[in-house]
Amino acid sequence: MKPQKAQNSSESTQKGKKSFVIRIDESTYKLLEKWANDEFRSVNGQIEYLLHQSLISSGRKKKE
């Protein structure tokens, strides 16, 4: 019997996204979680948004 792949990894591959582990301290996570909730995003979505905005503001990515 073949081992099954995790559903999340196949879903993220289908969307063209790469998953990885990030380690942050608990107080930073709580602040990020509150910020994400204030903007109606998940913590993961908030991290993605912040990285995207940082890449644009640094000139490393063109605004879409």
Structural summary, described in words:
This protein has 64 residues and is an all-alpha fold. It has a domain at 26-64. Helix content is 56%, strand content 0%. It has helices at residues 7-14, 26-38, 43-57. The mean pLDDT is 86. It comes from Chryseobacterium defluvii. InterPro entries: Arc_rbn_hlx_hlx, Ribbon_hlx_hlx. This is Arc-like DNA binding domain-containing protein.
Shape: globular
Strand content: under 5%
Structural class: mainly alpha
* Cα Rg: 15 Å
Please, how many helices? 3
How many beta-strand elements? 0
**How far apart are the termini?**
45 Å
* DSSP helix fraction: 55-70%
Quick check: average pLDDT? 86
The profile of the biggest β sheet is: none
**Poorly predicted runs of 5 or more residues:** none
InterPro entries: Arc_rbn_hlx_hlx (IPR013321), Ribbon_hlx_hlx (IPR010985)
Protein name: Arc-like DNA binding domain-containing protein
Distinctive features:
64 residues; mainly alpha; 56% helix; 0% strand; globular; Ribbon_hlx_hlx; Arc-like DNA binding domain-containing protein; Arc_rbn_hlx_hlx
Short description:
By secondary structure, the protein is an all-alpha fold. The protein contains 3 helices and no strands.
